[in-house]
Amino acid sequence: MPSYSSSSPVFNSIATILVKQFDVARDTIAPGAALSELGLDSLSLMEFVFAVEDAFHLRLPEDRLDPREAGITLGHLCEAIEAQIDCKLDSPMAAQA
Amino acid sequence: MSSTRVQVTGIGFVTPLGCTSVSFDDALFNGHSAVRARTLGIEGLDPIELAVAACDFDAAAVRSSSRLPLDRGTAMALAAARDAAAQAGLGAGSVDPERLGIFWGSGLAGAGSFDDTTRVLYGQQRRMRPTTVLTVMPNAAAAELALHFSAQGAVIAYACACASSAVAIGEAMRAIRGGWIDAAIVGGHEAMLTPGVMASWHAMRVTAPPPPGAPASACRPFSGDRAGFALGEGAAALVLESAAHAKARGAVSASSLFLAGYATNCDATHITSPDTAGQVRAMRAALRDAGIEAAQIGHVNAHGTATIAGDAAEAASIREVFGNATPVSATKAIHGHVLGGGGAIELVAALRTLARGMLPPTANLRVPDAAFDLDLVRGEAREARNLRHVLSNSFAFGGTNAVLIAGR
Q: Judging by beta carbons within 10 Å of its beta carbon (0-12, 13-18, 19+), is residue B147 exposed, middle or buried?
């Protein structure tokens, strides 16, 4: 499994969302951490994905990323975000806002 | 009348007049209105000019126990209740969780959240938040308070429009008197300043237009030129306890304020049109409940919405119960109509009136309606030493009347 870089801007953005909006301890947040291991219940996980979509101004297709599915990591989430950013030809930089 | 006295041991609020008794008293006793003009722009409609009283409140800063997003009104409820509980010293271990209740009122509850989420659903994004139901349900605030304060007694949400929180407070008083619980966190909220909800109120033709250059004077209760109310938002919470419970944990010295009486009934005459006879019955029933005579009420905090029909019916009912010698004020002129939260915020105003021994003026009331034969407090606040009992009216769409009497 390719490991995702913990220094990427996308990763840092979602880490900030987890800490600030969902009270997740920073030291539990790593690219290899499974979403199911963050201590969030299923509704909170879905709200987390919503918050990520809002922050990056995009939609993550559910067939690609169901947050309740076991084994999905924060790294996978970052890759899904980047794939969607690549799809958005109009204004990719808006995603960094 | 019951032998169990129900003490008010904590008060907290989030209102357009601020969140502290200093800012609240300053506006209340000086008649400073928080009403401002707001233009509601909805695509395809002409702009709508509204008078609204909003709170300087950051809902995002309030966290839920479950870390899920909160409705703005629920966030206000939580902030107000935390302040009330802190003032009462109501911490873990100070009350048996099974003997602690939550009695909470809201008229439209999560309508604002529903407006926000459906705007997204029907807009460009086309998605629905997974927590929409949880933020919209009428017991969202009551449930959040129960989680926060570990209240395992009765946790009940009341929805009777403008009387919601007054009913919630009164029913909690009855539950404490009846011995079902020892203490309760009570009150109500409303957060309805979203486009769809504001447009709904405007469509009823009951909201006052903001006068050009003087929007703060939009709501003029009992005035000859009254033109309706200003929409408000906010929350107020009280901690109620049996006197024995408060005394046992040493909280009774913190407050000499208590709830003396309560009554609720229904006009059952019309969905919106107020009924003087129903209001008279409710006020007299509250006086009987408190075991006092009308002459012992030193001040009436009127429902006073500043609608043509509403003020006329209430002026007549107060006149019938009290004659024309009991001073009357209406505070919606300064904090707006907070609907389901209004009864609780106006009870806070009544409690501040008692605590200060001072009667607040009805702001924006220069020339009272000539048809009203009442002692309307206007201009400046009036000193009232030896004030012992005040009465607060809440009269709702749907016909529900709720009357609370506070004492010291």
A: middle
As for the ipTM of the complex, it is 0.73
- Distance of residue A51 Cα from the nearest chain B Cα, in angstroms: 10
Nearest Cα to B80, choosing from B214, B285, B237, B198?
B237
Active site residue B162: yes
Region at B185 (left for phi over 0; alpha for psi -120 to 50; beta for the rest): beta
Q: Kindly name the residue from B19, B160, B162, B219 that is annotated as catalytic.
A: B162
Residue found by looking up tokens 């030193």 in the block = B298
- Reading chain B (408 residues) residue by residue, the pLDDT tens digits are 457 899 999 999 999 999 999 999 999 999 999 999 999 999 888 999 999 999 999 999 998 888 888 999 999 999 999 999 999 999 878 999 999 999 999 999 999 999 999 988 888 767 888 899 999 999 999 999 999 999 999 999 999 999 999 999 999 999 999 999 999 999 999 999 999 999 999 999 999 999 999 999 999 999 999 999 999 999 999 999 999 999 999 876 556 899 999 999 999 999 999 999 999 999 999 999 999 999 999 999 999 999 999 999 999 999 999 999 999 999 999 999 999 999 999 999 999 999 999 999 999 999 999 999 999 999 999 999 899 999 999 999 999 999 999 999
* Contact yes or no for B130 and A41 at CB 8 A: no
A66 touching chain B per CB within 8 A: no
Task: Say how far apart CA B159 and CA B155 lie, in whole Å.
Answer: 14
| Tokens found for residue B335 | 């904090």
Test the A interface: residue of B67, B134, B147 with most A CBs within 10 Å: B67
Instruction: Please give the model's pTM, rounded to 2 decimal places.
Output: 0.93
